[in-house]
Amino acid sequence: MLETFNSLMMGFAVAFDPKVFMYAIAGCIIGTLVGMMPGLGPLAGISLLLPATFGLDPIIAIVLLAGVYYGAMYGGSTTSILMRIPGEAASVMTCVDGYAMTQNGRAGPALAIAAIGSFFAGTVGVIGLMLMAPTLASFALRFGPPEYTALLLMGLFVLAYMSGGSMLKTLAMAFFGLLLGMIGIDVMSGYTRFSFGMVELGDGIGIVPVAVGLFGISEILITAGQAEPPKVQRPKLRELIPSREEFRLSVGPILRGSLLGFAIGIIPGSAHVISSFVSYGVERRLSKHPERFGKGAIEGVAGPESANNSAATGAFVPMLALGIPTGPVTAVMIAAIMVHGILPGPMLIEQQPELFWGFVASMYVGNLVLLILNLPMVGLFVNLLRIPYAYLYPCILAFCILGCYSVSNSVTDVWIMLAMGAIGYGLRKFGFDLAPVALGLVLGPMLELSLRQSLAMSGGTYMIFLERPIAVTMFGLALLLLALALKPVLFRSKDWRSEVGLDEKVD
Amino acid sequence: MAEIPAGPAQDTQDPEKGGLKSDRVSGLVLLALAGLIAWLNREFPLGTLADPGPGYVPLLLAVGLGVIGLLVALLGGRSEALRDIRWTEARRAAVILVACVALTFALERIGYRLSVFAFLVFFLGVVERKKPLAVVLVATGFSLASFHVVAILLGVPLPRGPWGF
Question: Which residues make Cβ contacts (< 8 Å) with residue B88, sequence separation at least 6?
Fold first, then answer.
């Protein structure tokens, strides 16, 4: 415990370095603005900023990108509450009661509770990250290729089981992503696969063009031609203070949302989206007056907002401890760290303690900065929403193309992004979740390599997966999840999604 | 944008009525895609079960995608009818994609600033029919300011045209 405390103090020394601190604040502000823009969620924001971090110190790069991530989550909730426009999918549930509160003249308290809940949940998440990641990383030092194969396969089953939409469609998208990951040179044989003679595809498809295309471009294509958003309210500072009753009603949902969100955040998939749906379902079920939900219940803002922020932090646990992304955002973050020659994984905390602990400490700082900055400045930030969408979306498109091009100075990446945008648009029209595609793209090569390394280790026998206790346990869990997932399909019974109201479409 | 749940979904009286279902179509498209990938994969050695070659995992994944596609199609009887999917924004989406393709094509030929300027003039002036002064101001301001921030302040190289611009 003392060691953790000392490491955290070292982290704070890094986080309060004037340069790092300045970038953390810049990240939070940029993120808030990005999160408020329709079409630019946290993922697109991080992807577009990625090239700008290449010349920075790795600690500053990751602190900046984490600030953007956090800020975008805050920004997304602001547009959800004030305009019923979820800046990103995780804010969908906030729209329901948040916007109803705005209509009831309680926009200020809704924003304040969302910010306080996010701050508390973010802090809980960071504490969880701080305690869990080093433990998990030291455990993961025992992992060899068979354990990684089992872990990745289990992750895919968890992803399918916990997905927001249909399990089959999620699995289909995961397989599609895994197949995209097969493009490029096979490291074990040297064969170049599915490159159609294009040298640029030798290294495979990058996560940035895929992520920006699937999430940024497809969003703009979907929203093209929609009516102008409603007029935006600008709550004054004194209107932000919630009443005593609103505070009392929010305490439980914030606590539950924070814990629930962190637990779900560790799981692969659209964790922060799912966590907000699950939290909303839980709060509606626990409420003595569930009929208030949908009509401006503050619990419907406090719970989901806390849950999605806590989940956002939880997602960093497997990323930092195992080097495995749980979603598209962490996949892009891994790419950002790897550009600097640092490999996230069990050895990261040991070999790069300043990076890990500086990152953890900067998350504390970032949370506080967002709470202090965002509430008083909400009136200023909402001015961005006054810019007509007709002016915004062409600029966002140009930004997407600029961002993708500058990752590797390649027009091929831009073509990939545009193709992914068109594919993402079509997939969303047919109700497919896009997160598994991005996740599969990153996990595909890892899964193939670990499987073939395991077989090379065992001389070609698959018994290696049954001889190692950790791998067997993971395969057992994967089979259990598969059985649980198949139960509602085979017996036509309801599954957990309908329990929490997740059977509505999420994209 | 993510869809906002507004209330309980409407019950379908007879799920099989209403023509072709969306999941049936998407499932069959996935099956066809899996077939195409398996066909493209034939040029890579499969290896053996004990010593997989470069074609082994892609084939396994293609088979998996095909099976899932088939299941999506078979179990998709209760999904939304294909004709109920609204394509109101499709024409605008196609214009956006074509304009982006043109910008990408022009990027390394006439440089970042000129191509982005033309792109914004097209969108704001032709598609959105904004006032000419606003169009010129936004297009000039955005193309120059974004170049300055990204290429000069952040040091990320951006393409310049034959005129050095």
Answer: A225
What span, in angstroms and rounded, lies between the C-alpha atoms of A93 and A267?
20
Judging contacts by C-beta atoms under 8 Å, the chain A residues touching residue B22 are 430-431
Enumerate the β-bridge partners of residue A185.
Answer: A192
Which pLDDT does position B65 carry in this prediction?
96
The lowest-confidence range among A19-33, A39-53, A218-232, B91-105 is A218-232
Residue B44 to residue A399, Cβ atoms within 8 A: no
| Distance from the B72 Cα atom to the nearest Cα atom in chain A, whole angstroms | 6
Residue B144 distance to chain A (closest CA, Å): 12
* Contact call for residues B115 and B103 (beta carbons, < 8 A): yes
CB-nearest partner of B85 from A96, A401, A429: A429
What stretches of A141-237 show up as alpha helix (H) in DSSP?
145-161, 167-180, 207-211, 218-223
The b-or-e profile of B98-123 (16+ CB within 10 A means b, else e) is: ebbeebbebbbebbbbbbbbbbbbbb
For residues A400-427, give the mean pLDDT.
90
**Is there a contact between A240 and A270 (Cβ–Cβ < 8 Å)?**
no
The distance of A319 to chain B (nearest Cα, Å) reads: 24
Could you count the other beta carbons within 10 Å of the beta carbon of residue A93?
34
- Residue A501 pLDDT class (50, 70, 90 cuts): low
Mean pLDDT for B43-71 is 92
CB A149 within 8 A of CB A471: yes
Nearest residue in chain A measured CA to CA from B9: A504
Predicted confidence at residue B9, as pLDDT, reads 41
B48-77 residues touching A, CB cutoff 8 A = 48-55, 57-58, 61-62, 64-65, 68-69, 71-72, 75
Tell me the CB-side half-sphere exposure of residue A109, using CA atoms within 13 A. Answer: 22
For residue A490, what are the CA distances in angstroms to A311, A431, A493? Answer: 31, 22, 8
**Residue recorded with tokens 């294009």:** A198
Residues A414 and A211: beta-carbon distance below 8 Å: no
The Cα–Cα gap between A338 and A74 comes to 27
User: How far apart are alpha carbons A219 and A196 in whole angstroms?
Assistant: 29
Distance CA B22, CA A506 (A): 16
Question: Which member of A188, A418, A448 has the closest CB to residue B97?
Answer: A418
Both tokens of A156, joined, read 């895919």
Q: A175 vs B65: CB contact, 8 Å cut-off?
A: yes
Instruction: Give pLDDT tens digits for A311-335.
Output: 888 888 888 888 888 777 888 888 8
A96's tokens: 């329901």
Phi-psi region of A39 (alpha: psi -120 to 50; beta: other; left: phi over 0): left
Which chain B residues are Cβ-neighbours of A217 within 8 angstroms?
100
Of chain A, the end-to-end C-alpha distance in Å amounts to 41
Q: Which residue has the tokens 């030092």?
A: A141
- pLDDT tens-digit readout, B107-129: 989 999 999 999 999 999 998 89
Q: How far is CA A276 from the centre of its chain?
A: 12
**Chain A CB within 8 Å of residue B25 CB:** yes
Residue B26 to chain A, least CA–CA distance (Å) = 7
**CB count, 10 Å around CB of A52?**
20
Closest in B50, B52, B138 to A391, CB measured: B138
Give which of B70, B100, B142, B143 to mutate to test A binding, by max A Cβ within 10 Å: B100
Taking phi first (over 0 means left), then psi (-120 to 50 degrees means alpha), and beta for anything else, what does residue B164 get? left
List CB contacts (< 8 A) between A393 and chain B.
123
